[in-house]
Amino acid sequence: MSDVNRQSRWRLVMGAGSEELCGELSGEEQLRDACLGYLYDREYGSGGRNVRSGEGGGLEASNLTVPDWINQIHELFPKKTIERLEKDALERYNLEEMVTNPEVLSRAKPNQTLLKAVLRTKHLMNQDVLKMAHHLVRQVVEELMKQIAQDVRNAFQGSLDRRNRSFLKIAKNFDIETTLRRNLKHYDPELQRILIETPFFFSRIRRQVDRWQIIILVDESGSMLDSVIHSAVTASIFYSMKMMKVHLCIFDTSVVDLTSECMDPVETLMKVQLGGGTDIGNALSYAAELVENPQRTIVALITDFYEGAPVAKLYSVARTLIESGVTGLGIAALDEQADPTYNHEVAARLVQMGWHVGAMTPGELANWVAEKVRN
């Protein structure tokens, strides 16, 4: 351990007022210090962590709310440290607002910050609080659905809506049900026949889309939470539009197929278990078993590409999928910002194999898929 790293650790332990002894903290370390101060400074009042009072830099503890604090510790600390912080918050300092008090949740303003905090602490909640949290999650998700749905539908407008008719009068596109219904007024009682004045046809593009399949694999590691939320909502919108056959799976070291829950992203999100290891190769192997027609299948892998299992399996399965004709799409981030942190080496190897890799907003994903199925 370097002297700089050792000094920073002591600075975090001792709190504000130890700058002369331990030096100043970097930007991210200041955020860690604010999180530690938010919890442990209450042990000694306003004087800091048992050290003389002093002005700390960066984000002040007073600016943090409980949801902010929960989200930040999950982003800034390793799993064992998070578990200790949560244990101390609940047992030592009775910081129970988020996980034991349904009245507090009922007064909370629904927003994505609160949604993420609920998903990170739902395993600590009793049934009464979990019920209230479930209601809160639904409110936030419904608002998010409204924001995303229009972008997704716009991407497919005119090509995937079965209500859109084609002017190409091709026999295999003939829509007999609509044709009969629309021409009933031309029924001839004497001949007992319907005279077809205007035949109707499905769009050929729509008929091609019916043969497409999209398999969405979502890494449920803690760093991917924003992408998990947007993946659940986007998959639900795809599913509800009945454009193609949609599969939704989440994974860590194992795979959970949530396709049966796909219509309700709230149920999907409440089943997510954040954290744990990551076995991307295993998730791709599961996807390979679902493929029906490789030439009409998209595997959308949403992950930061940090593989916890031997990476050779990941590369082997990824290459096999591409060679079979599957379209591989690796998404390093799926949210409004599309600003990812990911393993560039693994992503680059996938690109060399023929995968498409990038960060996307849900609207950009919809445009990409729509363009692909039109070709």
Automatic annotation (TrEMBL):
SUPFAM superfamilies, per database record: vWA-like
Pfam families found in the cross-reference section: VWA_CoxE (PF05762)
InterPro entries: LolB, Uncharacterised_CoxE, VWF_A, vWFA_dom_sf
Superkingdom: Bacteria
Record domain VWFA: where: 211-370
Gene3D superfamilies membership: von Willebrand factor, type A domain (3.40.50.410)
Protein name: VWA domain-containing protein
Originating organism: Bremerella cremea
